[in-house]
Amino acid sequence: MRTPDYPSQHAEQWAQVDHYFADALAAEDVALKAALAHNAAQGLPVHDVSALQGKMLALMVTLTGAKRVLEIGTLGGYSTIWMARALPEQGQIISLEFNPHHAEVARHNLALARVQDRAEVLVGAALDTLPMLAAPFDLIFIDADKVNNPHYLQWALKLARIGTVIIADNVVRGGAVVDADSHDANVRGLREFVQMISDDARLDATALQTVGEKGWDGLIMAVVKSL
Ligand code: SAH
Ligand code: DHB
Ligand code: MG
């Protein structure tokens, strides 16, 4: 069993149910398994989305008809592979990664999965590489340093069109998100991010709590209604 990010007495059951559905609905092929193995061999942290979450991201690409996807936070490219595979011919995913070693591992994994022609990793702090990107993106997945989520939201809006879907990972953090007095910079960044979405008339959003092999966490999904 993967070590959950947030401990719980139910962790083992949550992981079992995740595996049951993943086996039935989101089986990993050789390339996805190899990516996780290569990540581990290269010492990357185990912060990839789960297989079921990867499949959900892929389905989001499919059902939004996205042709251009932006990901902030690549790690080893596991989520990138899931989304890249759901793109149409001529589709493109650009993924932003601060850590050069993570980016190198990701490029290797993307090549193994044969999506290197549609998946590009840009190395650098996202706040330095975001200004280099051309709008619009159809789907934007925010999954990097949570402290910068407020800035990533502003960039996502700059790089959006009407109808763009914005998804952010890890917005529950074992329930920590409700602590208004938290000293955790990630939680503070997340709460500011949530407040910004709440206050922004251009966005329509919801949050989903999730349990599974990563423990108790969740995601926010927003759609851009106007610019
Ligand atoms: N989306 C990946 C997991 C990303 S983990 C998956 O599900 O497979 C978060 C990643 O964000 C890490 O690799 C980390 O190095 C990267 N990161 C952290 N701060 C960043 C920043 N300022 N700019 C870009 N990437 C950053
Ligand atoms: C962390 C980051 C993630 O993107 C994730 O899905 C889980 C944990 C982290 O930095 O702890
Ligand atoms: Mg994440």
From TrEMBL:
CDD domains per UniProt: AdoMet_MTases
Pfam families: Methyltransf_3
UniProt key word Cell inner membrane: no
KW S-adenosyl-L-methionine (keyword) present: yes
PROSITE patterns according to UniProt: SAM_OMT_I (PS51682)
Record keywords, A-Z: Methyltransferase, S-adenosyl-L-methionine, Transferase
SUPFAM superfamilies on file: S-adenosyl-L-methionine-dependent methyltransferases
Name of protein: O-methyltransferase
Organism of this sequence: Candidatus Pantoea formicae
